[in-house]
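Marked as duplicate of an earlier ticket. Keeping the data here for the record.
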Amino acid sequence: MMEQKVVFLDIDGTLTQPGCNEVPASAVWAIAQARAQGHYVYLCTGRNFGMLSPLLKYDFDGIISSAGGYIQCGNEVIYDCPMTEPQRQAAMDVLEQNGIFRTVECKEHSYVDECLRDYLYSQAAQKDNIEILQRRERLEQSLGILPMKEYQGEQVYKIVVMSKSMEALVRAHEALEKDFDLCVQEKDVSGLFYGEVVNKAFDKGRAIARVCSYLHLPIERSMAIGDSLNDLEMMQTAGLSICMDNGSEKLKKIADDICPSVSEHGIRAAFYKYRLITA
């Protein structure tokens, strides 16, 4: 009998192209086949719960959202950890004081500072490159991100940050490090440093451990597939870690294996290689 395993899939850059909600047919097929053969398949993402709705039609066994802050196994919520109000207010104030653009992610909705749009307009005009702005607009539309003026005090799970300087992020991290981790990625296409402010109470790695405990499966039977540094903890925790070929070079160095990119049917290839599917 095949040993039952649980697979944790990041979304952006792993299951889909970044900011996209369309899953390649090869991945849809592979996930369905793996589940039919008795394996569990979970989403494990930095996206909030509301951003997952277009993907839930594909039938997963559960979800880890908000970088581990909200976990649902089947229809049962097994972990739910929004920021406390003092934490939220402190984080928002520190980021604003350091001139850092904020996108606050609640359970159902996300809200972005309107001044980020103004900045991107100015950059696009200076560089004669409207594509910077268009990419951001497509991202906000596909993920349903609303202007900050519409925020009405919903509980916040994490804050995505974009900064014109690394120094500002360092200052913010020093002010917030008691309660929060700050994961900083490479610069994005707009030239801004991109990162996430995440509560120290959770991360993707601890989320994987929580799910394995709930399922009564040893962590050795877990597999994590991701592409960026915000997947680091889940890669370090899972029994087997796989980085997409389109992923971060730093992440590739610590992963157990590398599979083809999203556009080259990487999920299906990984599932075949590790015998989650045999048909």
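See parent ticket for discussion. DSSP finds nine helices and 14 strands in the chain.
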